[in-house]
Amino acid sequence: MIPWWVLAIAVFGTNFTLWGLIGLMRLLETSTRRWWRHRGGVASPEQDFLVGRHRVQLRRDRPVRLGVADVAVLMAAHNEERVIVDSIRAITALVPPENVHVVSDGSTDRTVELAEATGVNVISTTRNVGKAGALQEAIRRFGLVDRFAVVMLLDADTHVEPGYFRAALPLFDDPGVVAVAGCVRTSWRDRALGPVGKLVAFHRQRIYTMTQYLLKFGQTWRRVNATHIVPGFASMYRTEVLPRIEVNPPGLVIEDFNMTFEVYQKRLGKVGFTPSAVATTQDPSGFGDYVKQCKRWAMGLWQTVRRHPPRTNLFTAMLALLLLEMLASSIMLVLLPLVALVLVVPAVFDGVLAIPVVHEVHDFVAGFASLETLLFGVVIPDLMLTCIVAVLQRQPRFLLFACFFLVLRVLDAGIALYAIPAAWLSSSSGRWRSPDRRPVGPAEPTTASTR
Predict the structure, then answer these.
(1) Nearest CA to 422 among 306, 308, 257?
(2) Alpha carbon distance 275, 164 (integer Å)
(3) Distance between first and last Cα of the chain
(4) What whole-number distance in Å separates Cα of residue 231 and Cα of residue 280?
(5) Is the Cβ–Cβ distance between 285 and 197 less than 8 Å?
(6) SS3 label, residue 276
(7) Alpha-carbon gap, residue 398 to 405, rounded angstroms
(8) How far apart are CA 426 and CA 97, in angstroms?
(9) pLDDT score at 17
């Protein structure tokens, strides 16, 4: 019989524990530094940072501080007429309009027309080449590497919150940091979402909260830096490293996993992250779009793993731990409904065990698990996670969907397993179709779809 706590560890993993503890160490170090500065402590005039294979020296008396004027915003859009104007307005409230660059990837709606009306820089690709291809072409045609110190890659459905740059840009004070990951928050208010849309949004926010606070915060500590993704919804890169990153390699369905892998495997530097650099994005409002997006993300991860051979470094070791744990937990979650059914049915219908085959299957399963094991090893921990997220997000309504989150986790696990052979047996063009978008807030004549 598997103890319930072993099942809990197998399903929820040691990564959360490991990186959560490292995150606490990072928080302790940060708090200690603030206390030392408050007491009048003075930092050493010079500090060494390792950048790739080269050691550079940062002089504290001559800090290089980046401002929003140094940031180029690059937004790839494919048929995003419903949201493009609102997203541009949100970002131009924080950076000059001349710093914002939109590349329409073969759009057939009013995306280009609406973007041009906002006064930002707009170009179009001749055909739908995919997000990565559009970004690569736009970086070249706009000359962003030569004109700006930092490029922000921003999704067309994403709103950057006012404190984003104030929190994120200081991370580049460390010259070893070459990329900064934003803190994602799902947008669900004022979108007129139905029950399924709200369930998807709250499920995603639960995932975002756990992975960002328990994984990414620890993974991006400057002393132990190894995160597996800089999400493409609102991330920033030093332009000087972009020529060394293959933004659009053939065969990948998405670009953000690959760009992160390239940062570590080519030893370009480190990734920074702070939960204070927040941007809100639209998650799918329908079940079908949710499944399609999950497939793209899962295939993108495994396609990138296939493309990058393992190296003898911390990043590869931590990635291997993550993948092995994800594989084990996915198998267990996919088997969970079947195991629960085998255990529950005989408890409700006594006569079922008289059937020889059913009796043998039940005895086999019961030798490994019991209803009590599933309750304390899976169901209760999952409900506890929901309660924690509800407190952290200050959203009691999360509890209304608590009993459905585990069902979606089983679905996610099935998609993750499906993506493994699919990623190895197929090649992707990178072309995309945006999920169904919903304008945020009251509809306006310029943003409402005419189709």
Answers:
(1) 306
(2) 9
(3) 58
(4) 13
(5) yes
(6) strand
(7) 10
(8) 41
(9) 85
CA distance 48 to 54: 10
Amino acid at site 126 = T
In 103-152, which ranges are continuous DSSP H helix? Answer: 111-117, 131-142, 144-147
Using CA atoms, how far apart are residues 58 and 47, in angstroms rounded to an integer? Answer: 6
Inter-axis angle of helices 402-425 and 314-348, to 10 degrees? 130
Cα 280 to Cα 162, 208, 234, 352, distances in angstroms: 11, 11, 9, 51
- Please check whether residue 263 is in contact with residue 230, taking contact to mean a CB–CB distance below 8 angstroms: yes
Report the distance separating Cα 314 and Cα 162, nearest Å: 34
Query: Could you read off the pLDDT of 121-162 as tens digits, one per residue?
Result: 999 999 999 999 999 999 999 999 999 999 999 999 999 999
Average pLDDT over residues 111-116: 96
Spell 370-398 as b/e; 16+ CB within 10 A means b: beebbebbbeebbeebbebbbeebeeeeb
Q: Single out the residue of 208, 214, 183, 205 nearest to residue 278, CA to CA.
A: 183
Enter the pTM of the model: 0.86
Distance (Å, whole) CA 48 – CA 100: 34
Mean pLDDT in residue range 62-67 = 73
Which pairing describes strands 234-238 and 150-155: parallel, antiparallel, or unpaired? antiparallel
155: β partners: 76
Q: Which residue has the higher pLDDT, 17 or 271?
A: 271
Measure Cα distances from 26 to 92, 227, 277, 356 in Å: 33, 15, 17, 57
- Pick the range with the lowest mean pLDDT from 47-61, 77-91, 347-361, 436-450: 47-61
Q: Which residues contact 70 (CB under 8 A, 6 or more apart)?
A: 148, 149, 150
At 382, which amino acid appears? D
Q: Find all residues with CB under 8 Å of 261, minimum gap 6, and list them.
A: 228, 304, 307, 308, 315
Q: Cβ-count burial of 200 within 10 angstroms (0-12 exposed, 13-18 middle, 19+ buried)? A: buried
d(CA 339, CA 380): 17
